Amino acid sequence: MTAPDVRTAVAGAPAAASGTPIGVLPGDSGPDRSAVERLVTAALDEDLGVAPGRDVTTQATVPPDEVGTARLMARADGVLAGVVVVPAVLAQVAGRLALPSPTMTVHLPDGSALHRGDVVAELTGPVQVLLVAERTLLNVVSRASGVATHTRRFADVLAGTGARVLDTRKTTPGLRALEKYAVRCGGGTNKRMGLYDVAMVKDNHVVAAGGVAPAVRAVRERFPDVAIQVEADTLDQAMEALDAGADFLLLDNMPVPVLTEVVAAVRAREPETGHVELEATGNLTLDTAAAVARTGVDYLSVGALTHSSPILDLALDLDSPALVPASGSSSRPTPLAAASAPAAGAARVPSDLTPSDLTSSDLTPSDLGAFVAANPMGVLATVGASGEPEAALVGVVALADGTLLVDALGSSRKVQNIRRAPRVAVVVGLGDVTFQVEGVARIADGSERATLAAAYEAASPGSRALDPQLAIIAVVPGWVRRYDATRRPADVTEAQW
Which residues contact 205 (CB under 8 A, 6 or more apart)? Predict the structure, then answer.
Protein backbone atom coordinates (compact mmCIF):
# COMPACT_ATOMS: atom_id res chain seq x y z
CA MET A 1 0.00 0.00 0.00
CA THR A 2 1.27 3.44 -0.92
CA ALA A 3 2.11 5.76 1.94
CA PRO A 4 -0.36 8.55 2.59
CA ASP A 5 0.82 11.86 1.17
CA VAL A 6 -0.66 14.64 3.30
CA ARG A 7 -0.15 17.85 1.35
CA THR A 8 -2.09 21.06 0.99
CA ALA A 9 -2.22 23.22 -2.10
CA VAL A 10 -4.50 25.73 -3.77
CA ALA A 11 -6.69 23.61 -6.03
CA GLY A 12 -5.69 24.10 -9.61
CA ALA A 13 -2.08 24.86 -8.83
CA PRO A 14 -0.11 22.94 -11.46
CA ALA A 15 2.24 21.30 -8.98
CA ALA A 16 3.04 20.94 -5.32
CA ALA A 17 6.27 22.26 -3.85
CA SER A 18 8.08 19.10 -4.96
CA GLY A 19 7.32 19.91 -8.61
CA THR A 20 4.86 17.04 -9.02
CA PRO A 21 1.06 17.40 -9.24
CA ILE A 22 -0.69 17.13 -5.90
CA GLY A 23 -2.10 13.66 -5.23
CA VAL A 24 -0.20 12.01 -8.10
CA LEU A 25 0.89 8.37 -7.98
CA PRO A 26 4.33 8.43 -6.33
CA GLY A 27 7.05 8.15 -8.97
CA ASP A 28 4.66 8.93 -11.82
CA SER A 29 4.29 12.19 -13.74
CA GLY A 30 0.51 11.75 -13.90
CA PRO A 31 -1.79 11.90 -16.91
CA ASP A 32 -1.00 14.40 -19.65
CA ARG A 33 -2.03 17.80 -18.27
CA SER A 34 -3.49 19.11 -21.51
CA ALA A 35 -5.61 15.95 -21.76
CA VAL A 36 -6.79 16.52 -18.18
CA GLU A 37 -7.79 20.10 -18.92
CA ARG A 38 -9.70 19.03 -22.03
CA LEU A 39 -11.46 16.27 -20.11
CA VAL A 40 -12.51 18.61 -17.31
CA THR A 41 -13.72 21.28 -19.73
CA ALA A 42 -15.84 18.78 -21.64
CA ALA A 43 -17.26 17.29 -18.44
CA LEU A 44 -18.21 20.71 -17.04
CA ASP A 45 -19.76 21.77 -20.35
CA GLU A 46 -21.92 18.63 -20.16
CA ASP A 47 -22.98 19.43 -16.59
CA LEU A 48 -23.26 23.23 -16.63
CA GLY A 49 -23.78 24.06 -20.27
CA VAL A 50 -21.32 25.96 -22.41
CA ALA A 51 -18.89 28.01 -20.31
CA PRO A 52 -19.38 29.65 -17.96
CA GLY A 53 -22.64 27.71 -17.62
CA ARG A 54 -24.72 27.60 -14.46
CA ASP A 55 -26.00 25.44 -11.62
CA VAL A 56 -29.49 26.77 -11.10
CA THR A 57 -29.96 25.03 -7.73
CA THR A 58 -26.65 25.82 -6.06
CA GLN A 59 -26.43 29.39 -7.31
CA ALA A 60 -29.97 30.06 -6.08
CA THR A 61 -29.59 28.54 -2.62
CA VAL A 62 -25.95 29.10 -1.59
CA PRO A 63 -24.48 32.59 -1.14
CA PRO A 64 -21.27 33.06 -3.14
CA ASP A 65 -19.34 34.16 -0.02
CA GLU A 66 -20.21 31.06 2.05
CA VAL A 67 -17.10 28.99 2.81
CA GLY A 68 -17.04 25.36 3.88
CA THR A 69 -15.06 22.13 3.97
CA ALA A 70 -15.91 18.92 2.13
CA ARG A 71 -14.31 15.52 2.52
CA LEU A 72 -13.71 13.12 -0.34
CA MET A 73 -14.58 9.77 1.27
CA ALA A 74 -14.27 6.13 0.23
CA ARG A 75 -17.49 4.15 0.44
CA ALA A 76 -15.89 0.89 -0.67
CA ASP A 77 -12.54 -0.89 -0.53
CA GLY A 78 -10.32 -0.58 -3.58
CA VAL A 79 -7.38 1.27 -5.13
CA LEU A 80 -7.39 5.05 -5.51
CA ALA A 81 -6.84 6.89 -8.79
CA GLY A 82 -7.89 10.26 -10.21
CA VAL A 83 -7.14 12.49 -7.22
CA VAL A 84 -4.58 14.24 -9.40
CA VAL A 85 -7.45 15.55 -11.58
CA VAL A 86 -9.47 17.08 -8.72
CA PRO A 87 -7.47 20.35 -8.56
CA ALA A 88 -8.19 20.97 -12.24
CA VAL A 89 -11.92 20.44 -11.66
CA LEU A 90 -12.00 22.86 -8.74
CA ALA A 91 -9.93 25.47 -10.55
CA GLN A 92 -12.09 25.42 -13.66
CA VAL A 93 -15.29 25.62 -11.63
CA ALA A 94 -13.89 28.52 -9.60
CA GLY A 95 -12.97 30.30 -12.82
CA ARG A 96 -16.45 29.86 -14.27
CA LEU A 97 -18.04 31.22 -11.08
CA ALA A 98 -15.43 34.00 -10.64
CA LEU A 99 -14.78 32.77 -7.09
CA PRO A 100 -11.54 31.86 -5.26
CA SER A 101 -10.20 28.38 -5.88
CA PRO A 102 -10.45 26.05 -2.86
CA THR A 103 -7.46 24.60 -1.06
CA MET A 104 -7.05 20.84 -1.15
CA THR A 105 -5.39 18.70 1.52
CA VAL A 106 -4.55 15.23 0.18
CA HIS A 107 -4.40 12.46 2.78
CA LEU A 108 -4.10 9.56 0.33
CA PRO A 109 -2.40 9.91 -3.06
CA ASP A 110 -3.30 7.95 -6.15
CA GLY A 111 -2.24 4.32 -5.94
CA SER A 112 -3.21 4.02 -2.26
CA ALA A 113 -5.22 1.08 -0.99
CA LEU A 114 -8.63 2.34 0.12
CA HIS A 115 -10.85 1.11 2.92
CA ARG A 116 -14.47 2.08 3.36
CA GLY A 117 -14.59 5.26 5.46
CA ASP A 118 -11.12 6.52 4.49
CA VAL A 119 -10.79 10.28 4.03
CA VAL A 120 -9.00 10.79 0.72
CA ALA A 121 -8.82 14.57 0.75
CA GLU A 122 -10.32 17.69 2.32
CA LEU A 123 -11.41 20.63 0.18
CA THR A 124 -11.93 24.06 1.75
CA GLY A 125 -13.31 27.06 -0.08
CA PRO A 126 -16.49 28.62 -1.49
CA VAL A 127 -19.37 26.19 -1.01
CA GLN A 128 -20.71 27.09 -4.45
CA VAL A 129 -17.48 25.83 -6.02
CA LEU A 130 -17.52 22.62 -3.95
CA LEU A 131 -21.11 21.76 -4.84
CA VAL A 132 -20.85 22.62 -8.52
CA ALA A 133 -17.65 20.55 -8.82
CA GLU A 134 -19.01 17.60 -6.84
CA ARG A 135 -20.44 15.39 -9.58
CA THR A 136 -17.65 15.97 -12.07
CA LEU A 137 -14.86 15.21 -9.62
CA LEU A 138 -16.69 12.14 -8.30
CA ASN A 139 -17.27 10.86 -11.84
CA VAL A 140 -13.57 11.22 -12.58
CA VAL A 141 -12.21 9.71 -9.35
CA SER A 142 -14.80 6.92 -9.18
CA ARG A 143 -14.14 5.90 -12.78
CA ALA A 144 -10.36 6.00 -12.44
CA SER A 145 -10.43 4.18 -9.10
CA GLY A 146 -12.61 1.46 -10.60
CA VAL A 147 -10.00 0.88 -13.32
CA ALA A 148 -7.18 0.89 -10.76
CA THR A 149 -9.03 -1.55 -8.51
CA HIS A 150 -9.70 -3.98 -11.38
CA THR A 151 -6.07 -3.72 -12.51
CA ARG A 152 -4.80 -4.43 -8.99
CA ARG A 153 -6.73 -7.71 -8.97
CA PHE A 154 -4.88 -8.85 -12.09
CA ALA A 155 -1.55 -7.58 -10.76
CA ASP A 156 -2.07 -9.55 -7.55
CA VAL A 157 -2.91 -12.74 -9.47
CA LEU A 158 0.25 -12.32 -11.57
CA ALA A 159 2.52 -11.57 -8.61
CA GLY A 160 5.55 -13.86 -8.64
CA THR A 161 5.02 -15.10 -12.21
CA GLY A 162 7.29 -12.53 -13.88
CA ALA A 163 4.44 -11.43 -16.17
CA ARG A 164 2.74 -8.04 -16.05
CA VAL A 165 -0.73 -6.94 -17.00
CA LEU A 166 -1.08 -4.50 -19.93
CA ASP A 167 -3.95 -2.30 -21.00
CA THR A 168 -5.16 -1.80 -24.60
CA ARG A 169 -6.63 0.97 -26.76
CA LYS A 170 -10.15 -0.12 -25.74
CA THR A 171 -10.67 3.00 -23.66
CA THR A 172 -13.58 5.41 -23.17
CA PRO A 173 -13.40 8.18 -25.79
CA GLY A 174 -11.87 11.28 -24.19
CA LEU A 175 -10.66 9.37 -21.11
CA ARG A 176 -7.64 7.51 -22.48
CA ALA A 177 -4.99 9.50 -20.62
CA LEU A 178 -6.94 9.16 -17.35
CA GLU A 179 -7.75 5.46 -17.75
CA LYS A 180 -4.21 4.49 -18.73
CA TYR A 181 -2.90 6.46 -15.74
CA ALA A 182 -5.41 4.55 -13.57
CA VAL A 183 -3.97 1.28 -14.88
CA ARG A 184 -0.55 2.40 -13.66
CA CYS A 185 -2.09 3.30 -10.28
CA GLY A 186 -3.35 -0.27 -10.02
CA GLY A 187 0.06 -1.79 -10.74
CA GLY A 188 -0.42 -2.39 -14.46
CA THR A 189 1.61 -1.28 -17.48
CA ASN A 190 0.60 0.82 -20.47
CA LYS A 191 1.06 -0.83 -23.85
CA ARG A 192 0.74 2.10 -26.23
CA MET A 193 -1.08 5.38 -25.95
CA GLY A 194 -2.35 5.28 -29.53
CA LEU A 195 -1.58 4.51 -33.14
CA TYR A 196 1.32 6.94 -33.15
CA ASP A 197 3.85 5.57 -30.66
CA VAL A 198 4.06 1.80 -31.34
CA ALA A 199 3.47 -0.06 -34.62
CA MET A 200 1.17 -3.08 -34.44
CA VAL A 201 1.28 -5.26 -37.58
CA LYS A 202 -1.97 -7.23 -37.67
CA ASP A 203 -3.49 -9.56 -40.24
CA ASN A 204 -5.01 -6.80 -42.38
CA HIS A 205 -1.68 -4.99 -42.54
CA VAL A 206 -0.02 -8.22 -43.66
CA VAL A 207 -2.59 -8.63 -46.44
CA ALA A 208 -2.20 -5.02 -47.56
CA ALA A 209 1.62 -5.16 -47.54
CA GLY A 210 1.90 -8.60 -49.16
CA GLY A 211 3.33 -10.45 -46.20
CA VAL A 212 4.79 -10.10 -42.71
CA ALA A 213 8.32 -9.26 -43.88
CA PRO A 214 7.23 -6.50 -46.31
CA ALA A 215 4.96 -5.00 -43.59
CA VAL A 216 7.74 -4.91 -40.97
CA ARG A 217 10.21 -3.53 -43.53
CA ALA A 218 7.79 -0.79 -44.61
CA VAL A 219 7.25 0.41 -41.04
CA ARG A 220 10.98 0.44 -40.31
CA GLU A 221 11.68 2.47 -43.43
CA ARG A 222 8.90 5.01 -42.86
CA PHE A 223 9.01 5.29 -39.05
CA PRO A 224 12.43 4.07 -37.83
CA ASP A 225 11.90 5.54 -34.36
CA VAL A 226 9.00 3.30 -33.28
CA ALA A 227 8.87 -0.19 -31.82
CA ILE A 228 7.19 -2.82 -33.98
CA GLN A 229 4.92 -5.56 -32.67
CA VAL A 230 3.59 -8.36 -34.87
CA GLU A 231 0.39 -10.32 -34.22
CA ALA A 232 0.54 -14.11 -34.48
CA ASP A 233 -2.27 -16.66 -34.15
CA THR A 234 -0.18 -19.79 -34.77
CA LEU A 235 3.32 -21.15 -34.28
CA ASP A 236 4.07 -20.75 -38.00
CA GLN A 237 3.05 -17.09 -37.91
CA ALA A 238 5.25 -16.49 -34.85
CA MET A 239 8.28 -18.03 -36.60
CA GLU A 240 7.57 -15.97 -39.74
CA ALA A 241 7.48 -12.82 -37.63
CA LEU A 242 10.85 -13.69 -36.09
CA ASP A 243 12.28 -14.29 -39.56
CA ALA A 244 11.07 -10.79 -40.49
CA GLY A 245 13.02 -9.33 -37.59
CA ALA A 246 10.16 -8.75 -35.12
CA ASP A 247 11.22 -8.48 -31.48
CA PHE A 248 7.76 -8.12 -29.93
CA LEU A 249 5.00 -10.65 -30.65
CA LEU A 250 1.30 -10.45 -29.83
CA LEU A 251 0.12 -14.04 -29.32
CA ASP A 252 -3.62 -13.83 -29.92
CA ASN A 253 -6.27 -16.21 -28.59
CA MET A 254 -3.98 -19.20 -28.16
CA PRO A 255 -5.03 -22.02 -25.83
CA VAL A 256 -2.53 -22.58 -23.02
CA PRO A 257 -0.96 -25.74 -24.58
CA VAL A 258 -0.41 -23.94 -27.91
CA LEU A 259 0.86 -20.84 -26.13
CA THR A 260 3.33 -22.97 -24.15
CA GLU A 261 4.65 -24.47 -27.37
CA VAL A 262 5.02 -21.09 -29.08
CA VAL A 263 6.79 -19.52 -26.11
CA ALA A 264 9.26 -22.41 -25.96
CA ALA A 265 9.96 -22.15 -29.69
CA VAL A 266 10.52 -18.40 -29.52
CA ARG A 267 12.79 -18.64 -26.47
CA ALA A 268 14.84 -21.34 -28.23
CA ARG A 269 15.68 -18.86 -30.99
CA GLU A 270 16.66 -16.01 -28.67
CA PRO A 271 20.40 -16.80 -28.82
CA GLU A 272 20.21 -15.62 -32.46
CA THR A 273 17.37 -13.04 -32.25
CA GLY A 274 17.99 -11.54 -28.83
CA HIS A 275 15.19 -11.28 -26.28
CA VAL A 276 11.74 -11.25 -27.83
CA GLU A 277 8.93 -9.74 -25.78
CA LEU A 278 5.82 -11.88 -25.77
CA GLU A 279 2.30 -10.69 -25.04
CA ALA A 280 -0.69 -12.99 -24.60
CA THR A 281 -4.12 -11.60 -25.33
CA GLY A 282 -7.69 -12.68 -25.98
CA ASN A 283 -10.47 -13.39 -23.46
CA LEU A 284 -8.17 -13.35 -20.44
CA THR A 285 -9.84 -13.48 -17.03
CA LEU A 286 -8.73 -13.50 -13.40
CA ASP A 287 -9.37 -17.27 -13.36
CA THR A 288 -7.10 -17.98 -16.36
CA ALA A 289 -4.43 -15.30 -15.92
CA ALA A 290 -2.03 -17.27 -13.71
CA ALA A 291 -2.00 -20.29 -16.04
CA VAL A 292 -1.32 -18.07 -19.04
CA ALA A 293 1.48 -16.27 -17.17
CA ARG A 294 3.15 -19.58 -16.30
CA THR A 295 3.73 -20.26 -20.01
CA GLY A 296 6.55 -17.71 -19.85
CA VAL A 297 5.02 -14.72 -21.62
CA ASP A 298 6.14 -11.25 -20.53
CA TYR A 299 2.73 -9.59 -20.62
CA LEU A 300 -0.99 -10.27 -20.54
CA SER A 301 -3.08 -7.58 -22.24
CA VAL A 302 -6.59 -7.18 -20.88
CA GLY A 303 -8.99 -4.84 -22.65
CA ALA A 304 -11.49 -5.26 -19.82
CA LEU A 305 -9.32 -3.12 -17.55
CA THR A 306 -10.60 -0.02 -19.30
CA HIS A 307 -13.77 -1.10 -21.08
CA SER A 308 -15.48 -3.16 -18.36
CA SER A 309 -14.31 -1.98 -14.93
CA PRO A 310 -17.14 -0.91 -12.57
CA ILE A 311 -16.71 2.37 -10.75
CA LEU A 312 -15.49 2.52 -7.15
CA ASP A 313 -17.98 4.23 -4.86
CA LEU A 314 -16.77 7.51 -3.36
CA ALA A 315 -18.62 10.49 -1.92
CA LEU A 316 -18.04 14.18 -1.26
CA ASP A 317 -19.47 15.04 2.16
CA LEU A 318 -19.88 18.73 3.00
CA ASP A 319 -19.32 19.66 6.63
CA SER A 320 -20.84 22.69 8.29
CA PRO A 321 -18.16 25.40 8.37
CA ALA A 322 -19.01 26.02 12.03
CA LEU A 323 -18.32 22.42 13.01
CA VAL A 324 -15.18 21.42 11.12
CA PRO A 325 -12.28 23.85 10.76
CA ALA A 326 -10.31 24.18 7.55
CA SER A 327 -7.34 21.83 7.47
CA GLY A 328 -3.82 23.14 7.39
CA SER A 329 -0.74 21.64 5.81
CA SER A 330 0.71 18.63 7.59
CA SER A 331 3.14 15.83 6.97
CA ARG A 332 0.86 13.27 8.64
CA PRO A 333 -2.76 12.86 9.83
CA THR A 334 -3.31 15.53 12.47
CA PRO A 335 -3.94 14.43 16.09
CA LEU A 336 -6.29 16.72 17.97
CA ALA A 337 -3.95 17.67 20.78
CA ALA A 338 -5.64 21.03 21.21
CA ALA A 339 -9.14 20.75 19.81
CA SER A 340 -11.96 23.16 20.45
CA ALA A 341 -14.36 22.99 23.40
CA PRO A 342 -17.66 21.12 23.01
CA ALA A 343 -19.98 22.80 20.55
CA ALA A 344 -22.33 25.36 21.99
CA GLY A 345 -25.96 24.36 22.00
CA ALA A 346 -25.30 20.62 22.11
CA ALA A 347 -28.41 18.77 23.19
CA ARG A 348 -28.48 17.80 26.89
CA VAL A 349 -30.94 15.12 27.99
CA PRO A 350 -31.69 13.42 31.31
CA SER A 351 -29.67 10.28 31.97
CA ASP A 352 -32.74 8.15 32.55
CA LEU A 353 -33.72 8.32 28.87
CA THR A 354 -33.08 5.23 26.77
CA PRO A 355 -31.01 5.44 23.58
CA SER A 356 -34.19 5.40 21.50
CA ASP A 357 -35.31 8.59 23.28
CA LEU A 358 -32.12 10.46 22.44
CA THR A 359 -31.91 12.77 19.46
CA SER A 360 -28.87 13.64 17.38
CA SER A 361 -26.81 16.54 18.66
CA ASP A 362 -23.99 18.75 17.45
CA LEU A 363 -21.18 16.57 18.84
CA THR A 364 -18.24 16.89 16.44
CA PRO A 365 -14.88 15.21 15.88
CA SER A 366 -13.37 18.28 17.57
CA ASP A 367 -15.35 17.57 20.74
CA LEU A 368 -14.18 13.97 20.78
CA GLY A 369 -10.61 14.98 20.00
CA ALA A 370 -10.46 17.55 22.78
CA PHE A 371 -11.66 14.98 25.29
CA VAL A 372 -9.26 12.26 24.10
CA ALA A 373 -6.32 14.67 24.25
CA ALA A 374 -7.09 15.29 27.93
CA ASN A 375 -8.16 11.69 28.72
CA PRO A 376 -6.01 9.35 26.60
CA MET A 377 -7.06 6.10 28.29
CA GLY A 378 -10.10 3.97 27.66
CA VAL A 379 -11.58 0.51 27.24
CA LEU A 380 -11.84 -1.23 23.85
CA ALA A 381 -14.53 -3.90 23.50
CA THR A 382 -14.34 -6.49 20.74
CA VAL A 383 -16.20 -9.70 19.90
CA GLY A 384 -14.40 -12.96 20.64
CA ALA A 385 -14.27 -16.05 18.44
CA SER A 386 -17.26 -17.60 20.21
CA GLY A 387 -19.28 -14.39 20.19
CA GLU A 388 -18.45 -13.41 23.76
CA PRO A 389 -17.46 -9.79 24.50
CA GLU A 390 -13.83 -9.11 25.36
CA ALA A 391 -12.53 -5.82 26.80
CA ALA A 392 -9.08 -4.32 27.29
CA LEU A 393 -7.66 -1.15 28.82
CA VAL A 394 -5.94 0.84 26.04
CA GLY A 395 -4.30 4.15 25.25
CA VAL A 396 -6.23 6.24 22.72
CA VAL A 397 -5.34 9.03 20.25
CA ALA A 398 -7.83 10.94 18.05
CA LEU A 399 -7.23 12.24 14.53
CA ALA A 400 -8.83 15.39 13.13
CA ASP A 401 -11.66 13.46 11.45
CA GLY A 402 -12.59 11.69 14.71
CA THR A 403 -10.83 8.42 13.91
CA LEU A 404 -9.49 6.82 17.10
CA LEU A 405 -6.09 5.11 17.14
CA VAL A 406 -5.14 2.33 19.55
CA ASP A 407 -1.87 0.40 19.67
CA ALA A 408 -1.72 -3.27 20.68
CA LEU A 409 0.49 -6.31 20.33
CA GLY A 410 -0.05 -7.91 16.96
CA SER A 411 -0.68 -11.25 18.66
CA SER A 412 -3.27 -9.89 21.10
CA ARG A 413 -6.86 -11.08 21.26
CA LYS A 414 -8.22 -7.69 20.31
CA VAL A 415 -6.27 -7.62 17.05
CA GLN A 416 -7.36 -11.13 16.10
CA ASN A 417 -10.96 -10.31 17.01
CA ILE A 418 -10.99 -7.17 14.85
CA ARG A 419 -9.62 -9.02 11.84
CA ARG A 420 -12.56 -11.41 12.18
CA ALA A 421 -15.31 -9.00 13.36
CA PRO A 422 -14.46 -5.30 12.87
CA ARG A 423 -17.37 -3.72 14.76
CA VAL A 424 -16.13 -2.44 18.14
CA ALA A 425 -17.00 -0.15 21.03
CA VAL A 426 -14.65 2.19 22.87
CA VAL A 427 -15.24 4.01 26.16
CA VAL A 428 -12.78 6.89 26.49
CA GLY A 429 -12.09 8.28 29.94
CA LEU A 430 -11.90 6.54 33.31
CA GLY A 431 -13.67 9.17 35.44
CA ASP A 432 -17.12 10.68 35.81
CA VAL A 433 -17.13 12.03 32.23
CA THR A 434 -16.74 9.60 29.34
CA PHE A 435 -17.16 9.38 25.59
CA GLN A 436 -18.74 6.16 24.34
CA VAL A 437 -18.00 5.30 20.72
CA GLU A 438 -19.30 2.55 18.47
CA GLY A 439 -17.78 2.06 15.04
CA VAL A 440 -15.79 -0.04 12.60
CA ALA A 441 -12.14 -0.88 13.25
CA ARG A 442 -9.34 -1.97 10.95
CA ILE A 443 -5.73 -3.03 11.45
CA ALA A 444 -3.45 -0.66 9.55
CA ASP A 445 -1.07 -2.46 7.21
CA GLY A 446 2.18 -1.57 5.50
CA SER A 447 2.99 2.09 5.08
CA GLU A 448 -0.41 3.16 6.41
CA ARG A 449 0.60 1.54 9.68
CA ALA A 450 3.83 3.58 9.69
CA THR A 451 1.95 6.80 9.04
CA LEU A 452 -0.68 6.22 11.72
CA ALA A 453 1.99 5.09 14.17
CA ALA A 454 3.79 8.39 13.57
CA ALA A 455 0.53 10.25 14.25
CA TYR A 456 0.06 8.27 17.47
CA GLU A 457 3.62 9.01 18.60
CA ALA A 458 3.18 12.72 17.80
CA ALA A 459 0.15 12.88 20.08
CA SER A 460 1.60 10.58 22.75
CA PRO A 461 5.41 10.98 22.78
CA GLY A 462 7.24 8.04 24.30
CA SER A 463 4.59 5.50 23.31
CA ARG A 464 5.55 2.18 21.74
CA ALA A 465 3.48 2.88 18.61
CA LEU A 466 6.58 2.89 16.38
CA ASP A 467 7.55 -0.60 17.54
CA PRO A 468 6.93 -2.89 14.52
CA GLN A 469 5.69 -5.64 16.86
CA LEU A 470 2.71 -3.48 17.74
CA ALA A 471 -0.41 -3.23 15.61
CA ILE A 472 -2.17 0.09 15.04
CA ILE A 473 -5.97 -0.13 15.25
CA ALA A 474 -8.00 2.62 13.55
CA VAL A 475 -11.61 3.00 14.71
CA VAL A 476 -14.00 5.03 12.52
CA PRO A 477 -16.89 6.18 14.75
CA GLY A 478 -20.48 5.73 13.63
CA TRP A 479 -22.21 6.59 16.93
CA VAL A 480 -20.88 8.77 19.75
CA ARG A 481 -22.23 9.61 23.22
CA ARG A 482 -20.80 11.96 25.86
CA TYR A 483 -21.84 11.05 29.43
CA ASP A 484 -21.25 13.57 32.24
CA ALA A 485 -22.00 12.10 35.69
CA THR A 486 -20.78 15.22 37.53
CA ARG A 487 -24.15 16.82 36.88
CA ARG A 488 -27.45 16.03 38.56
CA PRO A 489 -29.16 14.65 36.62
CA ALA A 490 -26.31 13.39 34.46
CA ASP A 491 -25.90 15.06 31.07
CA VAL A 492 -26.03 12.77 28.04
CA THR A 493 -25.28 13.98 24.51
CA GLU A 494 -25.48 11.68 21.52
CA ALA A 495 -24.67 11.94 17.82
CA GLN A 496 -24.70 9.78 14.69
CA TRP A 497 -21.73 10.38 12.36
Answer: 215
Note whether 360 and 427 are same-domain residues: yes
Q: Give the residue-averaged pLDDT of 70-89.
A: 96
Would you say residue 177 lies in a domain? no
Q: Which of 111, 68, 204 is nearest to 448 (CA)?
A: 111
Q: Does 143 participate in catalysis according to the annotation?
A: no
Looking at the structure, tell me whether residues 315 and 286 fall in a common domain. Answer: no
* Co-location of 292 and 379 in the same domain: no
- Whole-angstrom CA distances from 230 to 204, 239, 246, 263 are 12, 11, 7, 15
Residue 342 in this model has a pLDDT that exceeds 90: no
Catalytic residue, chosen from 38, 46, 66, 202, is 202
Q: Which of 252, 277, 362, 438 is catalytic?
A: 252
Among the listed residues 169, 170, 423, 464, the single catalytic one is 170
Domain that holds residue 279: 164-171+183-307
Count how many domains the chain has. 3
Residue 178 covered by a domain: no
* Residue 191 known to be catalytic: no
Q: Catalytic pick from 75, 116, 135, 169?
A: 135
Distance CA 225, CA 43 (A): 35
For the question of residue 252 being annotated catalytic, the response is: yes
pLDDT tens digits for 163-174? 999 999 999 999
| Distance, CA of 147 to CA of 111 (rounded, Å) | 11
- Residue 101 sits in the same domain as residue 138: yes
DSSP secondary structure string for all residues of 20-60: S-TTPPTT---S-HHHHHHHHHHHHHHHH-STT---TTHHH
Distance CA 497, CA 492 (A): 16
The whole-number average pLDDT for the span 351-368 is 58
Examine the residue annotation and report whether 448 is marked as an active-site residue of this protein: no
pLDDT at 236: 94
463-492 pLDDT tens trace = 889 988 899 999 999 999 999 888 888 888
- CATH code for position 315: 3.90.1170.20
Same domain, 292 and 231: yes
Q: pTM of whole model > 0.70?
A: no
362 and 441 housed in the same domain: yes
Instruction: Work out the angle at residue 47's Cα, subtended by the Cα atoms of residues 171 and 305, and round it to the nearest 5 degrees.
Output: 20
Evaluate if residue 1 carries a pLDDT over 50.
no
* Mean per-residue pLDDT, 105-128: 94
Give me the pLDDT at residue 9, please.
62
Which of 231, 367, 401, 448 is catalytic? The answer is 231
Q: Say yes or no: 153 and 278 in one domain.
A: no
Active site residue 231: yes
| DSSP H or E stretch at residue 479 | strand 470-484
CATH of the domain at 259: 3.20.20.70
